[in-house]
From TrEMBL:
The keyword Flavoprotein does not apply. It comes from the Bacteria. GO terms for cellular component: plasma membrane. This is DMT family transporter. Keywords: Membrane, Transmembrane, Transmembrane helix. The lineage of its organism: Bacteria, Bacillati, Actinomycetota, Actinomycetes, Propionibacteriales. The chain crosses the membrane at residues 17-36, 48-69, 90-109, 115-138, 150-168, 180-199, 211-239, 251-270, 275-296, 308-327. It comes from Kribbella sp. HUAS MG21.
Length: 331
């Protein structure tokens, strides 16, 4: 009896652990993408075309995959049928659940606009607050494919500690209003990231129960985001004019490839562990990678200060606090 009863708990803990590890890798890719898009935006003198290039290259990769892999095309067909006939057994998907790419477009645009000024670490620590709180709300409302998740005291404490961490990390920006405003943008992007992960997970589940469903969700995400960014770019072009010439460094154009990997992976992982657990692991990966990037490959013209390091470590502590119940198999 005891052995049989403990097997499901052990399996649940293993799933959460694997989900956290996977999400950690996703978070590291987000940090790398922030670094790439931030420098590209700085060299172009405009973050919007940098974001458009990132999304456009990611969309191109996914369109090639769609052309070569029939199961991805079938998944996209399932999504289309679900939108057209939501009450006829195709998963109950609504059209607004397919616009997660708008949040992704805002994240990438924010990376390109702010990272070259405030640095990767401050950008990502600010995003922790929005993502942690928004993830709680998404899970509590059952917005993601894993269904409603309990709103426990430990989760709330973890989110509050993340807020304190953000305040500490951006404390030196308080005397510089421009820098503080820029720190608000990634916090809003973090809110959108949690929403994006939740609805992309639903799209992936509707497309297919296997990994190809996650790729199909990535196609939808990048297509919507690219269209949104293209419209913004046309307005930006009319107002600000032509950006600087494209840089020659090929590695600056890998942001889209990073996005393809972590958007598709997140759509798959969120179905197993929920929005909040995915957000925890993603945050941990972002925080650690961002510190290494700002120390060894800085893009902002400022050192990594003690408050930024302390805020990063505190935000990481918030992740661990909120993750403990899931690793123990308790709600």
């Amino acid at each position: 009896m005891t052995t049989t009863a403990t097997r499901p708990e052990s399996s649940t803990r293993q799933h959460h652990l694997v989900g956290l590890v996977s999400a950690f890798g996703i978070g590291m890719l987000v940090a790398v993408q922030s670094r790439l898009n931030g420098e590209l935006g700085g060299l172009l003198g405009d973050g919007i075309p940098a974001a458009l290039i990132s999304f456009g290259s990611g969309l191109l990769i996914l369109l090639v995959a769609t052309a070569l892999v029939p199961r991805v095309r079938r998944g996209l067909g399932n999504v289309w049928r679900a939108i057209r006939t939501p009450m006829r057994g195709y998963g109950g998907l609504r059209w607004w659940q397919c616009i997660g790419g708008v949040a992704g477009a805002f994240l990438v645009a924010t990376q390109s606009i702010t990272v070259s000024v405030i640095g990767v670490a401050v950008f990502l620590v600010a995003g922790v607050a929005g993502q942690a709180i928004s993830s709680l709300a998404m899970d509590r409302l059952g917005f993601g494919p894993a269904g409603p998740q309990p709103l426990t005291a430990v989760r709330i404490v973890g989110a509050l500690v993340a807020l304190v961490a953000v305040g500490l990390a951006v404390s030196e920006q308080l005397s510089h209003p421009d820098g503080l405003v820029l720190a608000v943008l990634p916090a809003l992007a973090g809110v959108g990231t949690a929403v994006q992960q939740a609805i992309n997970g639903r799209v992936a589940r509707t497309a297919s129960s296997d990994a190809y469903g996650a790729v199909a969700a990535g196609v939808v995400n990048f297509l919507v985001g690219f269209v949104a960014l293209l419209l913004v770019f046309l307005v930006d072009l009319a107002v600000r004019g032509v950006p600087n010439a494209l840089p020659n460094e090929p590695w600056l154009y890998l942001g889209g490839a990073c996005g393809v990997i972590f958007i598709s992976a997140a759509a798959a992982v969120v179905r197993v562990v929920g929005v909040f657990v995915l957000g925890l692991g993603t945050i941990a990966g972002q925080l650690i990678a961002s510190l290494f990037i700002d120390v060894f490959l800085p893009v902002a013209d400022k050192p990594v200060t003690t408050p930024v390091v302390a805020g990063t470590l505190l935000a990481l502590a918030a992740v661990l606090i909120a993750a403990v119940p899931n690793l123990r198999g308790t709600p």
